[in-house]
Amino acid sequence: MRNALVIALLLAAVVMVATACRDTEPGSAAADVRYDYVTFEQATGNASEWSYPQRDDAPPVTLFAPGFVPDDDAERGQRRLMCYTIEERTTDTQWRVGVRYAQKMIFDSLRVASAESLAARVSEPIQLASIWRTGEFINIDCKVQYTGKARKFYLISDGATLGDAIVHLYLIDDLNGAEGSFYRQCYASFFIGAVWRRASCRQVVVHLADTRRPEVTTYTFSKQ
What we know:
globular, mainly beta, 5-stranded mixed beta barrel, 3 helices, single chain, 49% strand, 15 strands
């Protein structure tokens, strides 16, 4: 229940900031402003350091942010949606950036369930804008039904496929019996390293329900 409440509060925070500030999709650039999913590493004095895992298996970029320190309880490893500009490309993988904000998002590690448990779970459809992999993270930009109450928003693997070459993952948006109304913005990132690092794993297939493209129910990510 505590996890569900945390997810509800994070979703509410994401909605408020996104409504006020967002004008492009994550990973895009407009007027030199970027929106990327990044990972908090550390804060020292009046500066902070972040890592930006690029798409697929491209080398991660270290972002140095002078003059910006999160004003909340940021912990190392926490994922954020960052709005920033590149002030200087020190090297290909080290950038000095000017941060406008680094907002909280839904962040969780991949969970495991049996096939029987997965079949019994209730999941509402989302409105998917984008799903992509950066290193060991599956990232999602979407809209979900607003309820104002606690919900469960997880990425869960079918435990029976963990040792297979193709591991099946399922996006679950469980409203906990609440009635959904209009759709609101949601950003989420899921750590799948425990599966992705397995020598046996060659692909992960993410199953989800999408109202925008209901005919597309799976997205496949392969090791290169």
